[in-house]
Amino acid sequence: MQTPVTILILAAGLGTRMRSRKAKVLHQAGGRPLIERVAETALEVASPGDVFVVVGRQAEEVCAALEGRGVGFIHQAEQGGTGHAVMVCREQLAARPGLLAVLYGDCPLLAAATVRELIARQAASSSAATVITTTVEDPTGYGRVLRDQAGCVGAIVEQKAASPEVLAIHEINSGIYCFRAELLWAHLDEIRTNNPAREYYLTDIVAIFRRAGHLVQPFHLDDPSEVLGINTRAELAALDRLLRERKARELMLAGVTLEKPETVIVDEQASAGMDTLIEPFAQIRGRTRIGEDCRIGAGAILRDAELGDGVEIGPYTLVQGSRIDSGARVGPYARLRMGAHVEAGAQVGNFVEMKKTRLGAGSKSMHLAYLGDADIGPGVNIGAGSITCNYDGERKHETRIGEGVFVGSNATLVAPLEIGEGSYIGAGSTVTDPVPPGALALGRARQVNKPGWARKRRKKTAPE
Ligand code: UD1
Ligand code: MG
Question: Is 367 known to be catalytic?
């Protein structure tokens, strides 16, 4: 029978070295909060009912970041150190048999395969615990691993408490462990706060085990990159860079062209299809999905956008939470937000803003328009400078424009408004009443020409 495993993620700390009001595990790299990555790794290894997260600083936000994943939460009201973070879990976790793996929320690159291997090694051994260690060029800030003659871990000494000899050790503690649960709970309360930080260091458990005659085995990783902790914004930026590079490579291997890939930002959960080309400085954020054969212009920012195939996004276009169907063209300098939907083959040009608006297949709005809360049918032309007046100061209203309507330039469409299919709106019209299908609507003053007026005026104003 397989040994039961519980995974505990420590994520209650503020992360003082981030110098932030925001809890460290909520800071983002690759477009996602650190805690989300660690939780996902845990969930690849264990079922949600066996994964617990210790929350404290900004507990509500951390829980929200993991909402819907089914993991359990344990509150650590005061952050008394990593040992204390485990102590507060006693009530909820001590009765769980088998193994307890502890991960730190600030160690986001850890791979599920490594956690599985850690658990397998501990399950196969008679040690009290297995600790992932690694050797780094600059061990500053990390706990140092002291080995005994047999090569087992004798103790972990924190930077702040280390002597010069210990500081010279380059083998570090990753903060990732697998314990025999029963032994951990039996000895956990022996941890004291007799260190410069006056904290309960979970790492002290190693020496405590040793004194009680239990072994702690190291699981040394040759490649440290997977277990590097994030403690400062500089480290966060380095992690972000690495994740961006990784994502860019993944896209390129999947057949996406990235011009100057080092300038392009693609969030981890975004995707793009084959033969799509992404120009320099584009940002593909959130859960954006881009089809095949698209072109994303320089400096365009797409967030949670959905693009069909063969879509062209001009430079410096913003698309947020909106959908653009195959063959449509949007931009340059357009802005789509809050559920805008550009249907197949439609075109949206420069300085056009669309909010909660459908632009039907093949329709065009090429210049300087605001289309808000509008349902625009197929084959419609929206003239330059036209706007939907969707807001009356209190509420938003809808504009419905039927198939094949021609809206002349600079029309002011006052919602709620219905414009029947195939009708024409004269340029410069202010339209407040429904327009029947096939009609011409003119909502402007008739032009008056006064012959010879200019000459008379000049005479009047000429100096004597
Ligand atoms: C810790 C280890 C160190 C190791 C390093 C690896 C200890 C004492 N030290 O140091 O040996 O080399 O990680 O990255 O464990 N946390 C809580 N509650 C608390 C304190 C911390 O939940 O009261 C959480 C934090 O949110 C964080 C994790 O535990 O996710 C680690 O805490 P952190 O303060 O970053 O420990 P380090 O100083 O990095
Ligand atoms: Mg840390």
Answer: yes
